[in-house]
Amino acid sequence: MQIDPELRSFATPRQLEYLDAIEKHGSQQKAAAALGVSRRTVDRGMVALKQAAALRGYSPEHNLTHIVPSPFAMKGYSQYWNPDGTPGGHWIKTNVDQQQLMAMQQAVKEAFFEDSPALPAPEGPKLPDNDIIPWIQIGDAHIGLLTHIAEVNESFDLKIAERELCAAISILVDELPECERLVINDLGDATHYQDFTATSESGHSFDFDTRYPKMIKVYSRTMRFIIDKALTKAQHVDVIVNQGNHSRSNDIWMAELLKVAYGHTGRVHVLNNDSVFIGYRMGNTLVMTHHSDKCRPKDLANVMTTDFRKDYGETQFHYIDIGHIHHAMVLKEHPGIVVEAFNHLATTDKWAHDNGYRSRKCITVIKRSRTYGEIGRRLLPVEEIRARIGKAAGGKVTQGREVYAV
Fold it and tell me: Is 226 exposed, middle or buried (0-12, 13-18, 19+ CB in 10 A)?
């Protein structure tokens, strides 16, 4: 049985075995018998192969012979006919095949870092405390958000986001004692949008600052500053990048990028964020982190006690850290588990402002003991951050809507 040779370029390794067996034995039924699989298995493999080829624009029985280059896939086909009834020209509409695009991005990342120099790490402390682990809670940073003071009472853009977040981390880390471990807990939505469309997962358009590549540069530079600063006070820095609804794809690749950039140090440990529920055990204390855009805060205790059942049973102090809602909140419905949302530094966007949402702008460090759970915290308000920035710059940084007075 003769097989169209063009199909081979679209086949998986297993489908190539099917094609070879069909050519050799003359039919799909005989090929299945020779390979020791069911006829249905071979049939489905061939259907999947032809569908994959069609998505790339190749299906001769439908007059499709112009192959779409990877990573595109065909989403529409139009044909017009000559007056004599013969086929005339045609055109193909395409869009990006997301699976192929992700595979290409992964290959590019691996190739880019294959021979790249590793990032240097600052020298860590010599005699650190090993019981207390500070948690720097970075609420939704929304890097890339754009607001105007006349509309929402505060201005916000890429420069402000980077300046205030880096200043906050610098202040907080300088105040910390030397420690064996420190946790950077990015609670999600570090970026305000996740691709060139600048829209949410539901299609809602955002107020965003300039171009996507510029935002990514600020985001990458800020994350490097945070980790490098943390390494000056901790022998080991554990980094949690929670998936947020504004920044989900960026959160995934940032975690992988940090693993590549700092993996050689043996001091930076980036937790796997494939799951939106991340568990972290430190002795007698168990912490679960989650952005909480999908699972409601009141349901998270059930997730912790189910997904981390063994560690929950072996520990005494239990905490669930969430972002998303932008204001401080402690849920008291679950005895033995503290579910807490944390403030952020970013300005409220116009939609939230016009709908009456207000919250304090600040960043929090929680000191958690392996033995006794939380033993203290430091709350750094944005007003203090701006005052310190203004003092360092020799001037005064002000934010806030003016009141008309006579």
Answer: buried
